Amino acid sequence: MAITVVSTRGQVVIPVEIRKKLNIKEGDVLSVHIDEGGRIVLKSQRKKQVKKGIVEKTAGLLSDMEMSGMEYVESIRRNQSISNIKQRAGR
């Protein structure tokens, strides 16, 4: 449990270990309310991030290569096929 002190201006500091754990950054907006038990509750107003698919995660990754992404994928497939054939042949 962390402890913080209320300043003369009514401000409190959220301890660094809590900010790190909850990924709270400077400028983030938090809502504040009091629950039924009389506790102060802070909630992040950050929009939930949608998990990115593989396409979004890797977009632009191959942009500095001398071949297109499709050419790269095809070369991997060709090399994989050759490896599989050699393994089956006992090489």
From TrEMBL:
Pfam families: MazE_antitoxin (PF04014). Keywords: DNA-binding. Signal peptide: none annotated. Coiled coil: none annotated. Residues 4-50 form the SpoVT-AbrB domain. GO terms for molecular function: DNA binding. NCBIfam families: lp_hng_hel_AbrB (TIGR01439). PANTHER family: REPRESSOR-LIKE PROTEIN SSO7C3. This is AbrB/MazE/SpoVT family DNA-binding domain-containing protein. It comes from Desulfofundulus thermobenzoicus. The lineage of its organism: Bacteria, Bacillati, Bacillota, Clostridia, Eubacteriales.
